[in-house]
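Take just one protein record:
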Amino acid sequence: MRVRLVLAAAALLTAAVAPLAHAGGADGHHTTDRLTGASARDAHFTNGLFVDAYGTVADDSTVTLSGTYRCLDDSAGPVFVGSTLVQGDRSAGIGGTRAVCDGHLHTWINRSVVKDPAYVAGAARVEATLLQLSGTGLPLPRFLATEKTDVELR
């Protein structure tokens, strides 16, 4: 139950504060090239996040988004990959995956049922965040990396 609460909190925090990260509040940066080309030994590498070019919408309104990430250290607190899907005037947080921060490339997959209003096949935008929760008491979010990209929902 605590894991579900932490995942839910991470997803909500990501959806609520993702615009702040894109306004310059994140200490990470877009690292798509490094995710696909550099090793964890690269001295310039910190953390990275990539969103796949397409997502899916199932008949039951389940939205699935995915991509890859890499992070180096989760000793200050748990790290999550959160995602928000934007299509037209609709916006919803889609899941929250616990990240493994070991310097290796990992796949993330976030799923949520979004019925009101439902998403449809076609163009959309994903705002994803690699977010660490740290601190005592109420954990505070720390942005490790962010990614905004256009996707195709199938």
Notes: Confidence is low (pLDDT under 50) at residues 1-43. Residues 52 and 67 are 5 Å apart (CA to CA). The first strand starts at residue 48 and ends at 51. The radius of gyration is 15 Å.
